[in-house]
Every structure is written in C-alpha cells, then in structure tokens.
Amino acid sequence: MYSNILVAVDVDHPETGAGALELARAMAAEGASITALYVLEALPSYATQYLPEEHLSNRVTEFTNVLAAELGNPEGVTPKVVTGHSGATIVDYATDHGVDCIVISSHKPGLQDFFLGSTAARVVRHSPCSVHVIR
Fold it and tell me: What confidence tens digit (pLDDT) does each residue in 107-118 have?
C-alpha cells in the first residue's frame, strides 16, 4: 500500500484518468494522499514575452478547473496543474513531493514511440519510485 500517490492525467484523454484514479484508490493505504497531476506544456519564451503577465496563472487556474471537472471532482483527490515537459515534470514533481507511487496511462505504441519515447516510458525510466502503467 502506498501513502503518497501521483496520478498523471491527460485532460485530452479523460477516459484514461478514471481508470488510473480507480487503481490509485485500490493501492492507497488508509489516509493516503492522492494527487491528480496534469502537465500543461510550457509555451516558448519567444511567445510568452507578448502575453500579459497573468496569462500563465490564468491558464493554470483554468486547467485545474477542467481537470477537477473531468475527473468528476473526486473526494480525497487533489487536482494539480504544473507547466513543463510532461515526462521530466512528472518525475520532478514526484521527487520534490515524496511520491511513493506514480500511476500513468499509456497508449499502444506506434512507430514514433520507438524513436522518441512516450511520456510513460520516460517516467518509468527516470522515476524515483514505483510506477504502475495502465493500458
């Protein structure tokens, strides 16, 4: 049983989030903390210089609300949105917050995954803790 579980969620594929959340609850120890994390891809710096200062914080707030709604506002789950590159940011968040298990969904690999690697593969290779991958 795990006490601090991170569920990596993609708001573009909400159907995978429900299954990952269900698995996280099944593996959670009593009183465990579960965080649903969405990584908002960072905008390039050459583009952000033309945006208002509050643009990033507004996007994070908006996507936090979208994440909570798509998951059905589950009790006992903290929705969190951060910016960065998906694979690296998930691993960094897990390291910084003492996560002892990451639950992440993976799609069936295509040719592009053999050359670039998927987010799930990157998390598995670099994670500081256990990783459960759902297909």
Answer: 766 655 554 458
